[in-house]
Each structure stands twice: as C-alpha cells, then as structure tokens.
C-alpha cells in the first residue's frame, strides 16, 4: 500500500483516535465514499454538490480522484472516512498548493482531520520541494474547519470578501496558509 500512516496518541474526550492512514483511492472504495458524498451536511461548505448516484461517484473516483496528483483517502482501519488533497498551482503560481479535505460527519470532532492535515503538512514540502506555501480557503461560517487549520499550525491571513459563489451565494472566505519555511514536523 502506497500511503502515509500515523499512530496518534491523542485522546479527545472519550474518543481515542486510532491509526489514520492516507492512501490513494481505489474503485473498491465506492461504498465508503458514498457515505459522505451523499450527505448534505458534509457537502454544505464544499464546492461540489451532494452526490445522488453511485455512477456519479464511480466516475469521480475513476476520472478525478485516482489520476489526481495528490488526493488521498483518509482511512481508519483501511476504510475511507474522508479525503484530503493538495492541488498544485502552475506557472507563476507554481510555488503554491491548495489544501482541501472532507470527512464523514459521524467522525467530526474527533481530531481526525486535524491529524490528517498535520500528516500532509509534515510530508508535502519534502515530496514537492517546489512548494513554498500550502493554503486553504474556508467559508467564514465553517468554524470547525477553521479550528482544524488553527490546530494544525496554519496562520489565518484574513477574510476575502465576496470571494466566490458557493451553492448559489457569494461567500466570504478565510485564507489560511502554512509556509515551508515556518513548518516544523511533528
């Protein structure tokens, strides 16, 4: 298996975080993928609309997720419970990559995404030495995602007003970043 793994020692409340593995998606992940991709609560702040069919999800995994330069399944016991990606920019923006993540809502609040973001941050600058900046845009109303980035060591840079249209509404977004020069591995 080609992936990144971490044994987390963290305990939050009564929820112990088990081993988290980041690995490439496989077509066989479809049923686990459908758990969060069909959930309106999960897709609320995502740029994609809630998936409505298995065929649509299979097409995404086959045509987008598998060939993506850096998109991984967030796995517990090797079962995907979410996804995390770094999308590199090109040309004059080639020193930047955009971080994105999603997690099935039954796993929210357990530190899983925070741990996954830290795992990505500890490896991405080594894997992609041309990257100098990892950034994440978060809807101003998505306080949970903002907390994830704060805990993972990202710096809040400011609010980009009326930055993009999301689900038919022009939204303010918060810009977070982590620089390769400021990052310290766990």
From TrEMBL:
Q: Which organism's genome codes for this protein?
A: Ilex paraguariensis (yerba mate)
The record's section on SUPFAM superfamilies has: Acyl-CoA N-acyltransferases (Nat)
* Classification via PROSITE patterns: GNAT
Q: Which residue range or ranges hold the N-acetyltransferase domain?
A: 20-180
Annotated TM spans: none
Q: What is this protein called?
A: N-acetyltransferase domain-containing protein
């Amino acid at each position: 298996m080609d992936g990144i793994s971490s044994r987390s020692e963290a305990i939050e409340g009564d929820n112990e975080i088990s081993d988290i593995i980041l690995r490439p998606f496989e077509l066989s992940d479809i049923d686990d993928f459908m758990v969060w991709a069909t959930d309106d609560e999960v897709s609320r702040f995502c740029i994609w609309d809630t998936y409505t069919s298995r065929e649509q999800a299979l097409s995404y995994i086959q045509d987008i997720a598998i060939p993506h330069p850096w998109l991984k399944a967030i796995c517990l016991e090797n079962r995907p419970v979410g996804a995390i990606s770094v999308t590199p920019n090109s040309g004059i923006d080639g020193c930047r990559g955009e971080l994105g993540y999603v997690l099935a809502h039954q796993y929210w609040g357990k530190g899983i995404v925070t741990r996954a973001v830290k795992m990505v941050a500890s490896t991405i600058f080594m894997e992609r030495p041309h990257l100098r900046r990892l950034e994440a845009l978060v809807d101003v109303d998505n306080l949970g995602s903002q907390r994830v980035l704060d805990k993972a060591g990202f710096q809040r840079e400011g609010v980009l007003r009326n930055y993009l249209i999301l689900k038919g509404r022009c939204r303010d977004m918060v810009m977070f970043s982590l620089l390769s020069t400021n990052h310290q591995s766990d």
